[in-house]
Amino acid sequence: MTKAKIKRNDVVFVITGADKGKSGKVLSVDSKSSRVIVEGVAVRKRTLRRSQEHPNGGIEERECPIHISNVMAEERYRARRSEK
Fold first, then answer.
1. Cα torsion at 73, 79, 81, 84 (round to 10°)?
2. Number of helices followed by number of strands (H, E) in the chain
3. How far is CA 47 from each of CA 40, 44, 51, 54, 73, rounded to the nearest angstrom?
4. How does pLDDT run across 66-81, given as a tens digit for each residue?
5. Cα 51 from Cα 26, distance rounded (Å)
6. What domains can you pick out in the chain, each with its CATH number?
7. What's the first-to-final CA gap in the chain, in angstroms?
8. What's the CA gap between 44 and 63, in Å, rounded?
9. In what helix (H) or strand (E) does residue 77 lie, and over which residues does it extend?
10. Dihedral over alpha carbons 4, 10, 13, 15 (to 10 degrees)
11. Which pTM was predicted?
C-alpha cells in the first residue's frame, strides 16, 4: 500500500476511463482499496428500497469510487499539458 498524493478536497482530473476529461473535487479517499470518490464523476443510478424515510422508494444518483491511478491533481495535469 503506497501513500496517496491525493487528499480530500483536492481538485483532480480524470485521465483514463469512461469519465476521461472530467474534473471535480475529491469527496473521500479510501487508502486501503486505493479508490477515490470525485464529485460529479462516475455517477451511477441506485434504487432505494421503501422505508420510512422514502415511503415510495425511488432512484437516486450517487458518485461511485474510481481507482486512484485514474486521476491526477488538476494543477499537475495542467502543468504537464502546458509543457508540450
1. -150
2. 1, 7
3. 18, 10, 12, 11, 32
4. 999 999 999 999 898 8
5. 30
6. 11-83 (2.30.30.30)
7. 32
8. 6
9. helix 74-83
10. 10
11. 0.83
- Find where cell 483532480 sits: 12
The alpha carbon of residue 48 and the mean position of all alpha carbons in its chain are separated, in whole angstroms, by 21
Residue 21 CA to residue 1 CA, distance in Å, equals 27
Q: In this predicted structure, what is the pLDDT of residue 2?
A: 59
Residue 83: the pLDDT is 81
Q: What is the pLDDT of residues 25-54, one digit of tens each?
A: 999 999 999 999 999 999 999 999 999 998
pLDDT at residue 4, rounded to an integer = 65
